[in-house]
Structure formats: structure tokens, C-alpha cells
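FAQ

Q: What does a record look like?
A: Structure on top, sequence underneath. For example:
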């Protein structure tokens, strides 16, 4: 389960620009409550880099690094 989630200024600006703050917060609530299947939290390859992603919408994903029960979101982009 994820306890704390941090977001970089760049990622926050992207969310504001694309009017996705509310959708992002819904995804965060799901992560904190342990509903990882709803947001599809998964570790990306190569796994040694410790990069994770989760779904905000069908089109957008958040990219983050995980340290224990903490996530730091550093990028938001369109999922292809």
C-alpha cells in the first residue's frame, strides 16, 4: 500500500494545464486505499531503474519512482 505521494512541480503544472487535477486526485485516493488494480500500478522495464507508472485516465499515465510506501510522481504523459 502507498502511504505518501509526492509530485514534482513539472508534473503538477502539466496536470493543471490539461485540467486533470481532479482525476489525478481520484487515482491517488485509489492508490492510498490499496485499489491498485483500478489504477494499474506496475513496475516498468528495466526493473532495476525502479520506475513505476499508474493510470490517471485511459489516455494519461503518471510516471513515478517508489521508495517503500512512498511514490514521487515526476512525469505525466499520454499513454500509447
Amino acid at each position: 500500500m502507498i502511504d505518501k505521494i509526492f509530485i514534482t512541480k513539472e508534473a503538477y503544472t502539466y496536470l493543471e494545464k490539461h485540467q486533470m487535477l481532479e482525476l489525478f486526485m481520484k487515482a491517488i485516493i485509489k492508490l492510498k486505499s490499496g485499489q491498485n488494480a483500478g489504477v494499474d500500478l506496475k513496475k516498468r522495464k528495466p526493473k532495476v531503474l525502479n520506475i513505476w507508472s499508474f493510470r490517471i485516465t485511459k489516455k494519461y499515465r503518471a510516471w513515478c519512482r517508489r521508495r517503500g510506501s512512498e511514490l514521487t510522481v515526476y512525469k505525466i504523459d499520454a499513454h500509447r
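Q: Is there anything notable about this one?
A: The two ends are 27 Å apart (CA to CA).
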